[in-house]
Amino acid sequence: xxxxxxxxxxxxxxxxxxxxxxxxxxxxxxxxxxxxxxxxxxxxxxxxxxxxxxxxxxxxxxxxxxxxxxxxxxxxxxxxxxxxxxxxxxxxxxxxxxxxxxxxxxxxxxxxxxxxxxxxxxxxxxxxxxxxxxxxxxxxxxxxxxxxxxxxxxxxxxxxxxxxxxxxxxxxxxxxxxxxxxxxxxxxxxxxxxxxxxxxxxxxxxxxxxxxxxxxxxxxxxxxxxxxxxxxxxxxxxxxxxxxxxxxxxxxxxxxxxxxxxxxxxxxxxxxxxxxxxxxxxxxxxxxxxxxxxxxxxxxxxxxxxxxxxxxxxxxxxxxxxxxxxxxxxxxxxxxxxxxxxxxxxxxxxxxxxxxxxxxxxxxxxxxxxxxxxxxxxxxxxxxxxxxxxxxxxxxxxxxxxxxxxxxxxxxxxxxxxxxxxxxxxxxxxxxxxxxxxxxxxxxxxxxxxxxxxxxxxxxxxxxxxxxxxxxxxxxxxxxxxxxxx
Amino acid sequence: xxxxxxxxxxxxxxxxxxxxxxxxxxxxxxxxxxxxxxxxxxxxxxxxxxxxxxxxxxxxxxxxxxxxxxxxxxxxxxxxxxxxxxxxxxxxxxxxxxxxxxxxxxxxxxxxxxxxxxxxxxxxxxxxxxxxxxxxxxxxxxxxxxxxxxxxxxxxxxxxxxxxxxxxxxxxxxxxxxxx
Lengths: 486, 180
What we know:
The structure holds two protein chains of two kinds.
Chain A: H1 2-13, H2 15-37, E1 61-63, E2 65-72, E3 76-86, E4 93-99, E5 108-114, E6 118-123, E7 127-130, E8 143-149, E9 152-158, E10 165-171, E11 179-186, E12 190-196, E13 199-205, E14 209-220, E15 228-232, E16 245-248, E17 254-258, E18 262-264, H3 283-304, H4 306-313, H5 317-353, H6 363-391, H7 394-411, H8 417-426, H9 459-483
Antiparallel strand pairs in A: 1-18, 2-11, 2-15, 3-8, 3-14, 4-5, 4-11, 5-6, 6-7, 8-9, 9-10, 12-13, 14-17, 16-17
Helix pairs in contact in A: 1-5, 2-3, 2-5, 3-5, 3-6, 3-7, 5-6, 6-7, 6-9
Chain B: H1 2-17, H2 20-47, H3 54-58, H4 62-83, H5 85-92, H6 96-125, H7 132-156, H8 159-177
Helix pairs in contact in B: 1-6, 2-4, 2-6, 4-5, 4-6, 4-7, 4-8, 6-7, 7-8
């Protein structure tokens, strides 16, 4: 304990180092806010700035589709055959949908044919259940049925319209009374992107899918009303869509063209919003300053010969190193937790004032990002301290620490996705995964790449990679400290 | 006037030449730069088809080589402050602008020489047809690294903080200002 105290006194009594630590915290907040302020969204369209559509689960969602529906007052069944679906996108969807309301972001359940993914039952944007596999040679399942009983909706599929397979069921929220039920078609955006070093070029374009529905039957508590076609979606350009529509064909079937998606929103170039890690960009500035302080707390003792006094006072050298690591890591962590929390709070305000679409994140996820970012910077300080003991020269130690932690982050943008994911698995930069808040959804086909904010490792696994480097450099430093003359 | 400058230049050149760290920094820059370029080009060729700018990949090693180059520039200045040689230097060259000019000239010369060797080596080893625009912008970037490290060295005077500041500007500012 007295060793820790001694190291704490050394840290706080060198004015330059104390100022540098506090400057790191201040710089983190200032640069984060400036960086967030730079993400101003310019809204030129007549409808103004796009709004964020939030689903019943609290996630940002996309909710744009063409719908031909009727009100359903009580329990009821809807059956239809999708006789054709033409759409270039594998996730173009056509089927039956029951929703609490046609306001974007409402709770819903749907059974559908996806152009490249067979029959699916999806509900409340994030849930996706695969239907029966089409047996080879046999006709594909193209008959769909939705059954509403109370607030529960169950989806069925059939190849012939007589033998039905249950796929899944969902309880809708806010769907106790009259709901809207009918046929829908939608087709997600198509990203035609090419990776180059440092830039990704190309365009994200809307697509349109057209489906024909026949043999429609509706049983149950349907109030007298006509089937009416409508385009569901926010009245702005938050998701690229083409104009859809519906018409009755000569053979009595109904043809619907739709554009958009009913799915969770995604990050990166194919998303419209920003994630909360955009409020912590100043962390990199803090990282550099903290690395300098960590290195100096080792190298300055060597430069001035204080290390001999230190080791005379505490002959057990491993303990000296441990005490230094605890003091530099602990004080950095405490400072950075406050700085990161303040950056997050201020940055969110700035982003919202700039009309940026800030994707919501749970309190637990936000706490993980704040604590993890502070932990990342604190571990980097300890790595720098250990490197300072190893090299005994500040220049070399600082360079190795900065290059090892920051350079992979710059390089991965110059590399193809496979190589950059590999880089973010094995280098200390893997710890940045702690800032990822958007999960991967297999029902949305985008590039889940590091450039788009999706890291190859889980948040705490990535953090563990950095910690492994920290432990390894500390062990090396302890070994060298015990072996060499001071 | 002109002779004074050449004499100051000779003095600076002798100081830079006779410090072992200078050579080590430059060798590290060339080796790490060519090494990284080779790795990036190999990965890029394995992963991306035709149509991309291969000169950028071939010169991406400068992203790493700039660190030793910047440290070399910082070291040549802050080393004098640490050892107290700065007093002798300023006694020998009393006109301080002259002293700074000579120092920066030597640092820029060394930086550009090492960067030229790195770029030529990287382009030769990776067998890349150079795109003159990319080579020019890389050369300008190296000049910026030399001037930046000299300026920060004179301002901060302490090796550790000058290193941290220069590396921060080179590696971190692009990240913070990056439009995401």
